[in-house]
Design brief:
By secondary structure, the protein is an alpha/beta fold. It is built from 14 helices and 12 strands. Strands 9-8-7-6-10-11-12 form a 7-stranded mixed β-sheet, sandwiched between helices. The protein starts with a helix and ends with a helix.
Length: about 425
């Protein structure tokens, strides 16, 4: 039976806690969010009917500071997924020198099936429901799957209307005109690019020698494929929710994106052969970047994965059993809480700019991001090599250590 994201996260946590020889009470404190809010949201639809949506906002741990994390709108969203994502956010923030705890939100909805007006009313109603628990110095929601700069701007407007003052730091991922940050649209993908460069360099290779497969062609996958191509990497396959496309000679990524814009899908793209999403993961390549959802690489397909580098663009794409198989095959894994931290970093930059009534250039944002990705890599790679542990465990050891130190300082443990 397939493990839930929460089961995977808790298994990873237990492994790290045991390795670090920490007390069981640390595991108990970190295995679930300390604050869990589930709400029912009535929304008037365009036809006059009322539809009830279920939403969540889980704040995992605030020892390091006010919590932060994105909001997912997805038809298959579950509280277990949101709990796992909030745990990963705590560790991601700790690992990447962001002075915040982790949180995550979500609504069980397919945003593609809502009109623009219905989506706006849902966003505003969600903010009203979670308003007592959020704010610039409490918990500030960002964007994630199914949300965007537009939805975040509606949420900010509703939040400010409730509080009767401007507070752009209360919501991240906004449109530029309302205080969003330069570099935000590409931030996660650019962080993945920098993470790939660091991983490849550590193994004595160059980007221009390599071929990549990118699973997912949404906001993260499209920008990553484009950035890979600009860096000289040959992108041989990409996919959307319907299909994958493969050309061993390399895809023209901009042409693929133009086709996607025209048709809303990659189905029928004429300059490549169609492959399934499962087949795509097993193609010949140097770099495999899963940028869709969690738990796509399992002990069932891991033995057939041929990539030399696994760059985790999604949160939790690899199960613990699959990771063991990949490591035994010599695959270098760039773990999600480091590799895909670009969006989190730039959301933090956005908040700093908002609190200081400041504005940074895209070049400044990208330079700061590249420096931090490289700095954190040097630290975790040193732990990885000196202690002879996996890159993921190295990340967890470093981040859990910071959270535990903060909890001890506060007298929680």
């Amino acid at each position: 039976m397939k493990k839930t994201a929460l089961e995977v996260a808790q298994e990873q946590l237990a492994t790290a806690i045991e390795y670090m020889n920490l007390d069981q009470e640390i595991y108990e404190l970190l295995k679930e969010p300390l604050s869990q809010l589930t709400v029912r949201i009535p929304v008037k639809m365009d036809d006059g009917t009322i539809r009830i949506f279920t939403g969540f906002r889980f704040q995992h741990n605030a020892a390091l500071g006010p919590t932060r994390g994105g909001t997912r709108f997805h038809p298959e969203e579950t509280p277990e997924d949101v709990k796992a994502l909030s745990l990963w956010m705590t560790l991601k923030n700790a690992l990447n020198e962001i002075p915040n705890g982790g949180a995550k939100g979500g609504i069980i909805v397919d945003p593609e099936k809502l009109s623009k007006g219905e989506l706006e009313r849902l966003c505003r109603a969600y903010v009203r429901k979670i308003a007592p628990t959020i704010g610039a110095w409490k918990d500030f929601p960002g964007a994630d799957i199914g949300t965007s700069a537009e939805t975040q701007s509606w949420m900010l407007d509703e939040w400010e209307a409730l509080n009767l003052h401007h507070e752009p730091a209360g919501i991240s991922g906004k449109l530029m005109v309302l205080g969003g940050s330069e570099g935000r649209p590409e931030a996660t993908s650019r962080g993945l690019l920098y993470a790939t460069r660091e991983s490849v360099k550590a193994k004595g290779l160059e980007m221009k020698q390599l071929a990549a497969v990118v699973q997912g062609f949404g906001k993260v996958g499209w920008h990553l494929a484009k950035l890979y191509e600009m860096d000289g990497v040959k992108v041989v396959a990409v996919s959307d929710v319907h299909t994958g496309i493969y050309n061993p000679e390399g895809l023209d990524v901009k042409d693929v994106n133009a086709y996607m814009d025209r048709n809303g899908t990659l189905v029928g793209y004429p300059k490549a052969q169609a492959v399934s999403n499962s087949e795509l993961l097993e193609l010949e390549c140097d770099i495999l970047a899963p940028c869709a959802v969690q738990n796509v690489i399992t002990d069932e397909n891991a033995p057939r994965i041929k990539a030399r580098f696994l760059i985790e663009g999604a949160n939790g794409p690899t199960t613990p059993d699959a990771e063991k198989i990949l490591i035994s095959k010599g695959v270098f894994i760039a773990p999600d809480i480091w590799a895909n931290s670009g969006g989190t970093q730039v959301a933090h930059f956005e908040r700093v700019q908002n609190l200081n009534d400041d504005r940074w250039s895209e070049e400044e944002v990208n330079a700061k991001l590249e420096r931090l990705i490289g700095k954190v890599f040097a630290e975790i790679y040193k732990i990885h090599t000196e202690q002879n542990i996996s890159m993921r465990l190295a990340c967890w050891v470093r981040s859990i250590g910071k959270v535990v130190d903060a909890m001890k300082a506060r007298g929680w443990v």
